[in-house]
Amino acid sequence: MVSTSLLTAIIAALPLALASPIRDMEARDEPGANAALAARAAPRFITGPWQNFPAISTWGTFDQMFEANKNSMRSTGSTWDDIGRINVAIRDAATLGVDERVILGIIMQESHGDVGVRTTTSPDGGATAGLMQCTGCPGFPGRHGLSQAEITSMVRGGTQHYKQNLVNWGNKWSGESIYPALREYNSGSVNVNNLSDGRGATPSYVSDIAQRFTGWVD
Ligand SMILES: *[C@@H]1O[C@H](CO)[C@@H](O)[C@H](O)[C@H]1NC(C)=O
Fold first, then answer.
1. Which segment of the chain is annotated as a signal peptide (predicted)?
2. What is the pTM of this model?
3. Is 52 touching ligand 1 by the criterion CB < 6 Å?
């Protein structure tokens, strides 16, 4: 995490829209510990089955989504070079067979693009690390100005995890697979009748990421 004084300096330098409280470190691992880091709620809380979530045809392009999220990533202390390398890493990891926008959505949900995000501990005792906060993934807590190889390792690791979830849900290039897989990524299991049933993790996880696809930025 950035130091308080640095954070204050960053916040002072940001436009008001970006300056609101500490970002939501995705709280699946330690809901209690993270309660103070209040999640910023997306405009809507979408619930129910996958059909209730925005279809791919309504999403913006990857370039639009990345451009819209750059300042938010920068506000974490990641450098512009880090951010450029995240873009390269996403395009690389997408060759595993995952839409670039989904990878970016998970990154924004889990770490806001902070390449130096802390490593957290999941309820089963495993460490979840890096930009996509995944088990067994590399992490570089407190560091910025990373190499392309370091950033790519975090994004590849998380994308491999998500790809397995996608396969578990039919591996379709459609919300039918993408949204349940996001719930599995967060919770480890899925209530198909309600993808906002957090099953002990973050209820709004899929809903928040879905709204990132259609332009919401926090
Ligand atoms: C889905 O679960 C959430 C979280 O528990 C709840 O608020 C919502 O009402 C549920 N929606 C449906 C359609 O069951």
1. 1-19
2. 0.84
3. no
